[in-house]
């Protein structure tokens, strides 16, 4: 919100520069985005008066004007504006001047006629088009008659003012007004702001006899209205227009402008209805009914939701409460009676309505952050008084209330000891009392405990911590001492889960994979891919984009997006892993999803890039990724056998190159090649992936000590080649060898697989190296042969293997 420096000076004795004032606001209250002066960068733009005018001899739309710019001779300027006329004070950019967009104006000829400068419209000297009043949108701007010819034009347009753009946090909605900022600065500079209060002159006719209010107080706990009759709708005076356009608000007319002015001044959103359009002189505040529609003031039609709050008469909605008024009840030139609404609506409902209809208005912004519930009537009175003055209206007697309650001050207590303990200060009772009084709070002290009475204009203060913050910021954050914490300390250590997660990252990077961090939000389709167990999706009520509507239920889809990003940029060799949380829901009625820590990987192309070898031949395959997963699980020291079981239950994975991963019979994840059709949809090359339930791995029992001393005695190896059915798996053979290999069998390695010539079609040859080693003595051939013979016999008996 842009706050006018000169407007603040109406209420406070400010003796610092605008930039210093902005720095004070930023240090003590809210962030300040910028401090600007609209006239900055502009020069040689003055007040001129059109003395005479004649048509251009070679154009049907240009006029040659003789303009008084305060010099001895008139200045000739060619102007093409449709509204140019003699006797008017106008904005003149002299030759050599700079106007909006840093455009330089030169003396020139227009179709053969000399033009000594330019007669300007507001947008040509830097005004945003959306704040230029409609009556001046398509032509030059006429200044007031009191403007002095030849003087700089900036003071007459408020362009010499400084605008402080405050970025208000959600908890400080009171700063969304000039009064709010003035009150806060008054506390900072120990001044009492000279705020004005309305004094309404009412007629004898009672407003309650003219209008009936029917309000659902669950949506509008406070709803008040005033009526003003016999108004004359016309443009607002210059002072009001200046205040509005400097705040970024377009002036409309004297009635609408007053409601916007009160919003800027008090922070209370108001709305003015054309009372003549309201059926049966009845106004309702209620939830929308099924099938109702409303065309808002921006002339857009909206299908109303039953959760929207509407303002309606007995026939139709006439406004979207707290967001925007209806086009069917807008103030027009023929309006004679105005109904002014001032209310408090439920913030959550307003926020959701604004999001639902994509109408993020100033009124909605204020209601979302809260408004001063104790100032609803005062803002309404101020608006009625000003409309009566500017539109020659008659204010009917009394405020009509549809709903109301007694707004009370908040009472919060805090002790001096607590304040000094938290802030690390040595403030006295007098110091703290003075701070609370500077804030405009009531305060009483008993036994060094402050009982603070907070007025409704500071609706963000409810608890002791809020008072501590107020003391700190008014005392000055820069004045707080820097102290070291006192008390006993404990040695910080990682939990077992944290240690294992960090170890997991170290291992993955050691295997050659780079860490990726993907969005936890994705599309519903991608969230439902690569599921390790059934789950209902968790959808966001108000997603920011269509690509981030649902919480992820897997990590692989995010990694595939990263692979696609790289492949699209001609990076073919991609090896990534991600550790993060996924979100599962057992059923749709579950309010919050369960969170699981997972780790996943995706490799496409070569894991180890070798430019001297054929890239395709050297690309990663199922077994290379399987080796990474197996080694990772072994390095975590999880007790139990690791098994990979072929499966086709994942539709996103290749049915012949996919396996479930289990440890001691407990399912922990999957591994496989991304199905070609899925790879095509992601626009990626051949890719292999895995995903593991890291929480399950953390909970599994671990080997306490993995250290094993290197034996000083030699190892003995035996090779065995088997002819077995093609249905026999390597895992089955390894299981039997390890089972019957004896106590000294150290390792078994498959070194050859052959199927083809000289081997029956339904058979395959598989060769293994068995390594034996006794850590305490040298093995004899008899010991090795005895163990090796048991292996041969078992393989022949149980697998019908033929030893070659």
UniProtKB/TrEMBL annotation:
Domain named FDX-ACB: residues: 711-804
Catalytic activity: tRNA(Phe) + L-phenylalanine + ATP = L-phenylalanyl-tRNA(Phe) + AMP + diphosphate + H(+)
Listed name of the protein: Phenylalanine--tRNA ligase beta subunit
Recorded superkingdom: Bacteria
PANTHER family given in the database record: PHENYLALANINE--TRNA LIGASE BETA SUBUNIT, PHENYLALANYL-TRNA SYNTHETASE BETA CHAIN AND LEUCINE-RICH REPEAT-CONTAINING PROTEIN 47
Annotated binding of Mg(2+), by residue: 460, 466, 469-470
Its EC number(s): 6.1.1.20
Record's GO cellular component terms: phenylalanine-tRNA ligase complex
Broad class of the protein's primary localization: cytoplasm
GO molecular function: ATP binding; catalytic activity, acting on a protein; magnesium ion binding; phenylalanine-tRNA ligase activity; transferase activity; tRNA binding
Cellular compartments annotated: Cytoplasm
Pfam families per the UniProt record, alphabetical: B3_4, B5, FDX-ACB, tRNA_bind, tRNA_synthFbeta
Co-factor(s): Mg(2+)
Gene Ontology process terms (BP): phenylalanyl-tRNA aminoacylation
Family label: Belongs to the phenylalanyl-tRNA synthetase beta subunit family. Type 1 subfamily.
